[in-house]
Every structure is written in C-alpha cells, then in structure tokens.
Specification:
Helix content is 25%, strand content 27%. It has 232 residues and is α/β, with parallel strands linked by helices. Strands 1, 2, 3, 4, 5, 9, 10, 11 and 12 form a nine-stranded mixed β-sheet that branches. The protein starts with a helix and ends in an 8-residue tail after the last strand.
Length: 232
C-alpha cells in the first residue's frame, strides 16, 4: 500500500452499527440530538438507544417531536432525566413528565438555545442577549449592561455526545444536510466531545462538492453504517 493510500485509509471514519453506536453511550450521558420535529434526527441511533435500556440522560435539543417519533421515543421510554429545549408543546408526554416531576425541563428561547450551543462549540464563555430580560427567563441569571441596555448572560452548552442526522456523508466523515435538518445538526456537531453521524446515504469521497460540505470530517468521530434494505 502506498503512502497516499495509507493516509487515505487513516482518514476514513470508523463505521459503526446502530447497536455499536448506542453501546458507546453510558447512563447519565449528556446528549445533544439534532432534528426539528423529528426531521433530521438520527432515528436508527435513537431506536438502538431505547433498546439498550440505558437512561438518566440530559438531552439538549430543539424539541422532543411527538410521542413515538424521534426524541419522543426516549421520552416515552423515560430515559431522559433532564431536558433543555426551546419548546415541548407538540409532545404531551414530555409535558406530563415535567408536571409530574419525573423530568426536569429547562425551556430556552430557540435563538438563545442555538447561540448557547454555538458558544459551546466555539469555546466562548457565553452570549449576551436581550431576549428574556424582565421575564421569568431572567431568574438566577446575570444581567450585564452594555451602552445603557440590559442583557442576560447565557452560558454555553456542551455535550458528551452529539447525535447528528445528515443527508449525505462521505467515508472521511464530511456531511451535508437537507432542508430543515440543517437547523441544529451543524451546531451540535461542533459542541459534542464525541460526534456520531447517521446519514441517509454514504457516498465516495469527492461526490459531495467541497462548497456543499457543511460539517467537515474533522468534527465527526464515527459514522453509522448505511441502512440495510431487505438484508442487503
């Protein structure tokens, strides 16, 4: 094998089954999970995670979709002990567990949530936002005045694992996304210590044009193997 071939081989990501990916995630892990109402969520990883029975997870996500859909499956299985999300209005089971005290829920304005994740990925100490000043959102948070205007200091968010749903991946781990799946997946890919990407399609290196790569391979730790259809 030539030096070039060795280098290319070393750049290829470790390809895992859904079960092997789920096995990497311990009880009590902090998870960032991509998706918007289940669109762009890594569904096979979530299914495998439910089958493991592990739980006590802290989940950071835009929402919890609906019962039986996407992150909603983790909620149904009562695997989440704390949730940080922008809304839970479409999942009555999330609401029930919050009201019953079975799960702690921190609601965060959507733009603020996105920027807190971005701050975690970029290594920033936090962000300043006027959203929530003078409301219950401000409870317990530092208020900083800049040019006569008050802002809340919102702290960065990071995770042990970022579970990403992509449109395509190549074997180096470069990712692109389709439509609304691009909303949160690229952000969480920056803020997870271990990033596991589930793509609808895995293509040869070079098929994804460089200017269409949204998440570069350097951020991705593992790829999920392509889904088998009819056992093939």
């Amino acid at each position: 094998m030539s030096t070039t071939e060795v280098a290319r081989s070393e750049r290829r990501k470790r390809v895992l089954s859904a079960e092997d990916a789920a096995a990497l995630i311990p009880d009590g892990a902090v998870l960032m999970i991509g998706g918007f109402m289940g669109v762009g969520s890594p569904h096979r990883i979530l299914d495998a995670l439910v089958r493991t029975g592990r739980g006590n997870f802290t989940v950071i996500a835009n929402d919890t979709a609906r019962p039986g859909v996407g992150i909603g499956k983790l909620i149904d299985a009562k695997l989440v002990s704390k949730l940080i999300a922008s809304h839970i209005g479409t999942n009555p089971e999330t609401q029930r567990q919050m009201i019953a005290g079975e799960m702690a829920v921190e609601l965060c304005p959507q733009g603020t949530l996105a920027e807190r994740v971005r701050a975690g990925g970029y290594g920033l100490g936090g962000i300043l936002t006027s959203t929530g000043v003078g409301t219950v959102v401000a409870a317990g948070k530092r208020v900083i005045e800049v040019d006569g205007r008050e802002y809340l200091l919102e702290l960065p968010l990071k995770a042990d694992f970022a579970l990403v749903g992509a449109h395509r991946a190549d074997y180096y781990g470069n990712l692109d996304y389709a439509l609304t799946a691009r909303n949160f997946n690229p952000l969480i890919a920056m803020a997870g210590r271990t990033v596991i990407a589930e793509a609808a399609e895995i293509v040869p290196v070079g098929v994804i044009p460089p200017d269409e790569v949204v998440t570069p391979a350097t951020l991705v730790t593992h790829l999920l193997e392509r889904e088998k259809i009819n056992g093939r």
